[in-house]
Amino acid sequence: MTVVIPRRGIVRDERTTPGLEQLRAAIAAGADGGAGIGALLGMTAESLEVGRAVFGLEPSPRFGNPLGTVHGGVLSTLLDSAMSCAVHTSLPEGAGYTTLELKVNFVRAVPIQGGRLRCEGTTVHMGRRVATCEGRITDQDGRLVAHGTATCMVFAPPTGQ
């Protein structure tokens, strides 16, 4: 069963983890202006559930490269955010993570005024020390723009304090 969080539109699955709840709380706390890279780029969380995170982004002229399209670094950041947050949703209490490796394939150029982008990240493998994930960015017409994979290092929760 899925539930929509009022005011944010985030879809919730009945299954939960401490990592998912922590991520939801962090996003809710930043709802009025936000913090970090997501706020800087104007990313919005559209859906969060165990093993899956979906973010949206509206391209703007400030994301442009010299060719007049969205810079690949912005697309890479969107992929890294969705994929690693998918890992975050699967973490146990007190665990952390960081991206070790990021691979991005750009399929088509994104015009600066090309309409809203949607990026879905999912976990592929969730181990005690390593997690892998994949993601896809689509444009407003549902066409694939870029896709990628990432490897994350998982940090175990601190013991005996």
UniProtKB/TrEMBL annotation:
One Pfam family here: 4HBT
Keywords associated with the record: Hydrolase
Coiled coil: none
Recorded superkingdom: Bacteria
InterPro entries for the chain: HotDog_dom_sf, PAAI_dom, Thioestr_dom
Thioesterase domain residues: 68-146
Protein name: PaaI family thioesterase
